[in-house]
Every structure is written in structure tokens, then in C-alpha cells.
Amino acid sequence: MMGYLKGGAFLIQETEAKDIYIRSEFGEDQKMMLSATEDFNEREILPVLMRFEEKDYALVESLMRKAGELGLLGINVPEKYEGLGMGFNTGMLICEEISSLTGSIATAFGAHTGIGTLPILLYGSEEQKLHYLPKIASGKWMSCYNLTEPDAGSDANSGKTKAVLSEDGEHYEITGQKIWISNAGFADVFIVFARIEDDKNITGFIFEKDQVEGLTLNPEEIKLGIRSSSTRQVFYNKVKVHKSAMLGARGEGFKIAMNALNVGRIKLSVAVTGAAKKAINYAVGYANERKQFKVPIASFGAIQYKLAEMATKTYVADAGNYRAGQNIEDHIARLENEGLSPQEAKLKGVEEYAIECAILKVFGSEVIQYATDEAVQIYGGMGFSAESTVEAFYRDARISRIYEGTNEINRLLLVKMILKKATSGEIDLMTPTKTVIKELMSIPSFNAPSDVFFAQEKSVLQNLKKTVLMVAGTAAQKLGDKLATEQEVTMNIANMIIEVYMLESALLKTEKLVLKDGAEMHDEKISICLNYLHHAVEEIRKNGKEALFAILEGDEQKMLLMGLKRFTKVQAVNLKEHRRNIAKKIIEENRYCFN
To answer: Does position 3 have pLDDT exceeding 80, yes or no?
Structure first.
């Protein structure tokens, strides 16, 4: 089993390439499932791709039920409940592929297999799991998750929906309003959150739609993108459910909601990364065919720049996705070996890496926004036409920065979680932070890097980690509890943390490939890493400077700005040539080719 790195500990510990998982390591069973999913996409989704822009909700429902018949909705559901019982990372792999062609299917799939399944799997009683999971895994029943309310979005625990216990103590009557409920139009199973009396926290309930009265739905929402995904408001008017419909314990609803969202975040990242790869395929295909001045536009440096940047960001996202996915899977196995039940192990396995899930959600959703925007730009006027595939990709991408918690909320949350782990002693941030501050007083080391692969780049990475510790530690010391209200500074720190994790993931993935196959086989991936390294340095320098400007003055500020400059030094390389190297490979292959 791989070495155990606690969630968030990447900031203070080094990880070796051998200890991370990369996409190419999946075995035959996983590859067979991937192949079946690719066949499903080719056979069922591609031929009707433009219908998803016509608000064809029945098409999405039909395809979801077909996916269920193939077993694609039960990848992570244990065999005991008639699922396939495959690992967490395998679920990621299938999610990436099935979500890659249209946001309408991606949303329906993610809502059903994630927040529509996990609360039952993680918190349901054995009776509830035996009753619901087989039908949900097979697609016979579709599931939806009712959390968001008009006045309860990011502050999910502030919902006003009420659950009132009947006089005989046998039933609850649920009354309230939910909005933006994915799959509501065709869902058979409803997971809903409501407050009992004046409880501090909400409580979860689960029921079958055709077994209750008082449930009404508004017409389908008309949306910017994901146009054929069913999204409705749901109204509860004294909806009567038996007390056995309670999901988990009373008052556990907020915990259920947050843990389901952790999985939703990393699954969203892998889904949009799959879509980014398809966007690159469309963009390079068009660039190779479209001629201007008698040559394909793919031959122009400006277009090659775009293709290289799209591929760089997508490759980096992919590296982070499967690294974190396997960390979660390994931790689940570790906890089971220690005696925890499979249910509790899954819960705590995901919870441990909530920081990484938030990082990946933010990064992946911003990668797909970038990739689809550049795809439209490469298409030019044709990209602005509703008849082009990339136009729909562009609109579908926009929601990913909003759902599963907005990117702003996730940035604030990941910093809060890291500081909480540091305060509780789960990870020791203070000792390395003090070491970094002492290092600022010392003479810089001018030791030449060793001949180990990526030695120079890893040295830069270590200095970037020092930068994060320096800025975050100073902010925590100077602002204390006020850091939570200084959201701009928190966002600066979050951006720095994200860059460190994503850069490290890309370097380790590439190092692992090189150690296995040799550098020549992965020349373009090395170029990707060098390209991203310089991007990460600039982002960390900029955000570090803004944070230090905000929290310090005078000599102290000058000293730490000198430290920032020292820790963000990087060797000059010709990025233009590295980008051309990346683009050349994509253009020759006529597709994203770095899996």
C-alpha cells in the first residue's frame, strides 16, 4: 500500500513519484469498464449530441436508464447492493468519460451517482440501503438531492424547510421549498434536508416520490447551459414520511450534505477534465482543417500557444485528480483493515482529503472554462454559432464554477480546513513555518542541484511551499481570528496552495512516467511541466505580494517581500519552444494525447 500522506500535509512533506497513482496504471478490469463507457458514448450520445441543446429532458432520462442497465451507475456501489463494487478511482475514470461530451449528461450522472447515492451508502440504515441502492445502481430508480433553498445556498445549514413530528410520533410532515434540484423532473427517489423544531443542524430524509402526497414541482428551469439536464424547484406541503425515512441520525443532515459534497467536488473535477480533453480534440481538429493564407491555422504560433496552454492545464488537472482519487481509495482500504466498517471507512476516507477535493474542484472548473473559451476562439466566428459543438461546451462549462460550492466558497474553505488541522495538531504547520522565517535571516544556499530527474524543478517547488508557509503563517499570526473576514487575503493564500498542489502532482506524474519509460518517450510532458512551473511561480509571486501588502507595513513588509523574491526564483527557459513542442504533438496526433 502506498505511503500515507494526510490530507493537506503536501504543504510540509515531500512525496515521491512512486507513491502517487497515475491514470495509465489502471488494470484490465478498469480498462474494460472504460472501453464500455467509450462505446456507450460513441453509440448513444455522439449521434444525438445537438439534441441536448433542445431541452430534451426525456433523452437524458432515457440515456441515464440505459447507463444503469450497463452497470455505469453502480460502479462504486458494493456488490451486496447489486452494484459493481469497484474502487473509488475507477469511479473517477468512468465519471470522466461519460461526462466528457455534454454537460447535460455530466450533471445528471454526477447528481445521481454522487449526491443522489452517497448519502444513502454512507449514512443509510441497512434496511434503507437494501431497499434503495439496488434500484438506484441499476437505473430503475433515479435519485435527486434536495438541499438548496432560496435563502440557503452557500450557507446550506440555514435552510427553512421544516419537518414536524406527528402526534403519534410515527411520521414527519415536511414543508418548505427547494431550488435548483438536478434530476427532479424524472427522479423516483428524493433525498431532502429539513429542520426539526429548533435544532441547530438540519436532518436528512429519504422517500419514494410515488409514495407521498403534497409534493409539487415547478416547470423546468431555462438555463444558460446544461440545457437538457432536469432542474426544477420542488415544493413540500406537509409531505408525510414515516420516521424510518430519516437518513442518519437527527441533526446529522449538515454533515451528510458536506461529506456528499466532498465527493461531488472531486468527481466534478474529473468530469470537467474529461470535457476539457474533448474541447482540445475539437479545437485541434478544426485548426488542422481550417485554412487561412493557404495554410492550416494550426501552423500559426498564436494558435499553437492556445493548444499548448489548454493541454498544459488539462494535463495538470488529470495528474491531481487521480493522485487524490487513489489517496482516498487507499485510505478507505487502510481504515477497513484497521477494523472500521466499510460504511465508516468510506466516510472517513473521503473526509480526510476534503482539502484536496476542494482544490481540484476549483482548479478543474477553471481549466474547463479556459479550455472551452479558447476552443471557441480557435473556431473564430464558427465557434459563436449555435451549430458548433464548442459553443455548447462553452455554455455548459460555466456552471462548474458555481455548483458543488462556488469556487470562492471552496477557496475560503480549503484555507479554513488547513488552519483547523494545524490548530488541532493533525498536521504540524507551525514548526516548518518557523523554520522558513529563520531561513529568511540566513545566507541563501547556492548549492548546485543534483542530477536527479527534475532536481531543479523540485527545488523550486520546495521554495514555493516555503512561500505559502511564510505568507499563510504571517497572515494567521497578524490577523488571528480576523483572517476569516479578510477574504481577499484568504483567497490569495488559497490560490498559492492550489498552485503548489497542482504543480507537485504534474511533476510527480511525469517523473513516474520518465522513470518507467525514459525521458524521450515523454518529452512533451516534460515541456508541459516546465510550462506550468513558470505559471505557478508567477501566480504564487503575485498572490504572495498582494497578501503581504495587505497585512504588513514598513521593515517587516520589506523583509518578507525580499523572502518572497528569494523563494520564487526560477531558471529562465524558452517557454515559446516548450509550448511549440507540446502543440506539435497535439497537431500531429490531431487530439489530446497525454493520457
So the answer is: no
